Amino acid sequence: MSDRQDLTRRIRQVVGEHGHLPVDIATIDDDSDLFQAGMTSHASVNVMLGLESEFDVEFPDAMLKRSVFESVRAIRSALEQLQVVAA
Amino acid sequence: MTLAIERDQGFLDAIRRIADEVAAPHADDVDRSARFPVETIEALKTEGALGALIPTELGGGGESLETVADACFELGRRCGASAMVFAMHSIMVASIVRHADGSPWFQDYLRRVARDQRLVASVTSEVGTGGDLGRSIAAVTPGADGRATFEKQAPTVSYGEYADDLMTTLRRSPDAEPGDQVAVITSRDEHTLEQTATWDPLGMRGTCSPGFIVRAEFPVEQLLPVPLAGVLTQSMVPISHILWSHLWLGIATDAFDRARAFVKAQAKGRPDQLPPTATRLSQLMSELSLLRAEVRNGLREFVEADEEDRESLSTMASILRFNNLKIAASEQAPRVCQGAMSVCGIVGYKNDTPFSVGRHLRDTMSACLMVANDRIHQTNASLLLIAKDV
To answer: Phi and psi dihedrals of A75, rounded to 5?
Structure first.
């Protein structure tokens, strides 16, 4: 499994656990809009907290907005960006 | 200096004149009868004020948000309900101007608002959503020939009966999630209002905001071409908090002015003694200063953020900032009005003296309910778990 696949798997796990989606995360593809799929603003905060803890990162304020968390792919590029900054 | 600033000043002079000559003399009757401030709104239309925020190339006034905020303040000093109607209309217009620039229908619509001075009301709150504007139950239901319908139960629609058009928030489709929202403009001949409640509130009585079931049929091009979520965070919510807080500041400022006039009248009676109420007035001034500072800062920070990077208004730090403006101003404005009442004593408490501040107090007490502060605290509490620099 590539690093990126592993990253995606862990993101999906966090979203599945904290996103309170009305559908199974397995039915959602990486580009689907999570908010359209039913993630509430409150649940999105829990997803952010879950991601910070899972990946041991802190999202800076500029990243804490809806568009950064609107899909698995968007979350992945945010995390990749953070890890580039960290490295 | 620049042409734009001169025009802003001319516009504000006209608003001040309307506030003094039209809004003020009718304010008590509007309040007592809980009637729409028709004289003020007609005067604002004559001045073209309903198109103030519309760009000049579309026939509007091309005024800045700062100018319109000042106008809300000036109207608020004379009639809170008139100011609220103007503010709510301006919030809807601002949201369209800022988010619908790609839509030919909405460009034409803005031209018509400017040309015909159409009054726009909003149908945002909904029975069953717990006051959360970010969720809807009612949905856009597709029909034949590019048309669609909706039916929405609204607990309050301010001046709905007097508006030419309604801007209603809805779920995108019957199978969309509650947070997947859009907004639609419908005109008087496209919607009906079935009143479901009476209107006899404590304050802001002239806004005429009973509950309605709103039903409409409309062409789909009248749907705002972008999802509501971005419109809410970048425009509708922060601009509401800015314009509302300016008019609350206006009401509180007039209450303070009346208290000051009262103390001055007392002092004139006994020129050698400082009236006992004078110290209390000084304390009140510091309360008013706090309110003014928060309201003015909120506006300045919004305009700066908007000019620098509109996207930044979507961040949690920004949402918290403008939620705080609303909470702080809505709590502080009635505090100032109550302070003014305690300075003026019985002549402030009575409704028919030059120092009456009962209407001011009652009007500003609505502030904490317009999107309930408890609801906003709940949102903030959640955002604070993750936001860093607030």
So the answer is: -65, -40
Contacts of B309 (CB under 8 A, 6+ apart): none
Whether residue B99 contacts residue B235, with contact meaning beta carbons closer than 8 Å, is answered with yes
Q: Residue B324: is it exposed, middle or buried by C-beta count within 10 angstroms (0-12/13-18/19+)? A: middle
pLDDT tens for each residue of B69-117? 999 999 999 999 999 999 999 999 999 999 998 899 999 999 999 999 9
Nearest Cα residue in chain A from B133? A41
| Beta-bridge mates of residue B169 | B183
Q: Which residues of B touch A53 (CB under 8 A)?
A: none
The answer to whether the Cβ–Cβ distance between A64 and B317 falls below 8 Å is yes
**Per-residue pLDDT at B6:** 62
Predicted confidence band of residue B317 (pLDDT cuts 50, 70, 90): very high
- Among the candidates B72, B97, B118, a domain finishes at B118
Rg of chain B taking only CA atoms, in angstroms = 21
Q: Count the domains in chain B.
A: 3
User: Which among B176, B379, B387 is the nearest to A61, CB-wise?
Assistant: B387
Q: Tell whether B107 and B251 lie within a shared domain.
A: no
Tokens 């001169």 belong to residue: B6
Of residues B163, B280, B273, B141, the one with CA closest to residue B215: B141
If asked whether residues B251 and B368 sit together in one domain, one would say yes
- Residue-wise pLDDT for B10-39, tens only, equals 999 999 999 999 999 999 999 999 999 999
